[in-house]
Specification:
Blueprint lengths: L1 E11 L4 E11 L2 E3 L8 E4 L4 E4 L1 E3 L7 H9 L8 E2 L8 E2 L6 H10 L2 E9 L4 H10 L4 E6 L5 H8 L3 H15 L5 E3 L3 H5 L19 H15 L5 E4 L9 H9 L12 E3 L7 E2 L7 E2 L1 H10 L3 E4 L7 E6 L2 H11 L4 E5 L3 E9 L5 H16 L6 E2 L13 H9 L1 H8 L4 H6 L11 H16 L15 E4 L12 H9 L3 E4 L2 E5 L2 E2 L7 E6 L3 H18 L17 E6 L7
Parallel strand pairs: 1-4, 1-5, 6-9, 9-10, 11-12, 12-13, 13-16, 16-20, 25-26
Antiparallel strand pairs: 1-2, 2-3, 5-21, 7-8, 14-15, 17-19, 18-19, 21-22, 22-23, 23-24
């Protein structure tokens, strides 16, 4: 199929295109430089802006925790229900929508690629089942490694080569894309009835610290030359004063920079940007974190912006979920996954008049507006923890328009409003900067070379919105812009029109990305021997039943990496 998009106002930051009126040519699912215009389908994009398809770096959309959340919260099913149609399946859900609803809603907003950021390796088979079931989107998943017994044992012995080789085996075995660390060591420590808040406390039995895990896995990531940095949910999440732990986490890998590539990505930084000593004195640490990020190139972050709504929190940080259950009195699920990780689920409602919730809302925006370089930021709500991804257009409006922020602040808790600096921040994102934080930056951080841009050879993932920059001022007309961003005029996936005027008109099967890293054969044999010797001591299944076959994935896309040098 050939497609010609005429007269679009294009925002493509990777190629430096900032609001230029131009045509976009598509053939066989790729952006090309020439087509047969007589045979091509034509879209007149006059009065529209064009951006690459949206890329979400961090959204909990699939796997056992999401499915358990659906079971825990039948009331969530009532928020949205959608009947099937000519091309659509039926579905329900708001904060934890079903797989089909997830694909449809992302596509309606112009998103085409989404990362599932936390999967217990042992249970990743089910994660892939749900990713297979999610239409339209390209996706990947990040195995949890921050409390893994094999990794902690290798790091305790100082055997980085074997640790890196085990990581390579694990990514290949479960078809994962990047390493995810959730409060390193905290789940294991909690299993011994103890808490773990900073990064220099000793983890029982393994006699290493979270700092050792963070640095060790960052070095392993560099050794394997993986396309994306380690993704870390910092220790002490949700605790007043935790911005200091976040700062120390960033500092501890300053010397492990990979040139112009980040060495660490801090996820949902809003939840780890709290100052104060208790809930009554809670305040924002966003300014201090933004100041650090502005001065250093080795760190990137996504926002984890809070939305004032009812949602479902879910995370591998089981100890925090237990504390949230006690704070809120809401129902709670806890889960431990053998020698790997844990997790919890707690429903939660963010309220404007609640002081703590109001401060949380201001923190994410303060950080986004004070980091000078948008290439270091990705827009997320940590779906569904800070709020459902369906509400991304609200966050976009707050970034684009100070008026939109002030309109929301007028309804905010008065004490929180008085203590926040948000009203004094006059910066407003441009549409070009919005394209960076929702497309170009996440694609670049993830190492997805064919995503996040509209250059020749890129995947033909394109979103068109009915926003005419010559007539519409996003700062003044933020409500109209928000409506347009919620319902794309067109979403094109791999060259096929899947959304028209906010309605799903076509369904494609997205790809699943995963990484296969090469390691020296001798070290690989030693690690495999270790696994065979100890696996059944640690697990309730046999080693041969652990790996997931590539054929189990629908349309898998493999990224093979070769170490630049096997030198520790």
């Amino acid at each position: 199929m050939e497609l010609l998009i005429r007269n679009a106002v294009v925002y493509d930051p990777i190629n430096g295109i900032d609001g230029e009126r131009m045509d976009i040519l598509v053939r066989d699912g790729k952006i090309v430089d020439s087509i047969n215009e007589m045979q091509a389908k034509v879209i007149d994009a006059s009065g529209m802006i064009a951006m690459p398809g949206g890329v979400d770096i961090h959204s909990h959309i699939a796997g056992p925790k999401v499915n358990k959340g659906r079971e825990l919260r039948p009331e969530d099913h009532l928020r949205y229900a959608e009947r099937g149609g000519r091309v659509r399946r039926s579905g329900v859900g708001y904060s934890i929508p079903t797989t089909f609803m997830t694909g449809y809603w992302y596509a309606r907003m112009g998103y085409t690629t989404v990362m599932e950021p936390a999967t217990a390796p042992l249970e990743t088979r089910h994660t892939h089942e749900e990713l297979n079931d999610t239409p339209i989107l390209d996706k990947a998943c990040f195995p949890l490694v921050g409390s893994n017994w094999f990794i902690m044992e290798y790091l305790r012995r100082g055997d980085l080569e074997k640790c890196a080789t085990y990581v390579a085996w694990l990514l290949r075995a479960v078809k994962g894309y990047a390493m995810k660390l959730v409060a390193p060591g905290s789940v294991e420590t909690w299993g011994w009835g103890r808490g773990l808040m900073g990064i220099d406390e000793v983890i029982p039995h393994f006699e290493i610290t979270p700092r050792d895990i963070i640095r060790g896995l960052c070095r392993a990531n560099n050794l394997l030359n993986l396309p994306s940095p380690i993704h870390i949910h910092c220790n002490a999440l949700g605790a007043p004063g935790n911005f200091r732990v976040t700062l120390e986490t960033m500092r501890c890998v300053e010397d492990l920079s990979r040139g112009d590539r980040p060495s660490i990505h801090i996820v949902h930084i809003q939840f780890n940007a709290y100052a104060g000593s208790d809930w009554a004195s809670l305040s924002s640490g966003a300014t201090r974190l933004a100041r650090y990020v502005n001065r250093h190139s080795h760190v990137t972050a996504d926002l984890g912006q809070v939305i004032f709504t009812d949602t479902t929190t879910m995370t591998a940080d089981g100890p925090w979920q237990y504390r949230l259950h006690n704070l809120s009195g809401n129902k709670w699920i806890n889960h431990d996954v053998e020698a790997e990780t844990g997790g919890g689920i707690v429903p939660y409602h963010y309220r404007r008049r609640n002081y703590v919730n109001a401060i949380q809302w201001t923190i994410g925006l303060e950080f986004a507006l004070q980091v000078k370089d948008p290439w270091k930021i990705c827009l997320t709500t940590d779906h569904p923890n800070g709020g459902p991804f369906i509400e991304y257009p609200r966050v976009m409006a707050w970034l684009l328009s100070r008026r939109a922020r002030l309109a929301s602040m007028r309804r905010l808790n008065k004490t929180a409003r008085r203590r926040s600096i948000l009203e004094s921040l006059e910066r407003e994102y441009s549409l070009y900067e919005l394209a960076i934080v929702t497309r170009a930056s996440p694609a670049r951080i993830l190492g997805l070379r064919e995503k996040g841009h509209l250059g020749i050879g890129a995947d033909a993932d394109i979103s068109l919105y009915r926003i005419d920059p010559s007539e519409v001022d996003p700062s003044r007309d933020f409500r109209a812009v928000r409506r347009s961003l919620r319902r794309a005029a067109y979403t094109i996936k791999d060259g096929e029109i899947v959304v028209k005027e906010g309605e799903v008109v076509g369904v494609t099967e997205g790809r699943t990305f995963w990484v296969e890293a090469e390691v020296p054969e001798g070290v690989s044999k030693e690690v495999l021997s270790d696994l065979k010797e100890r696996f059944e001591d640690y697990y309730t299944i046999r080693l041969e039943n652990y790996p997931i076959e590539e054929g189990y994935l629908r349309r898998p896309s493999v990224r093979r990496t070769r170490p630049e040098a096997w030198v520790v």
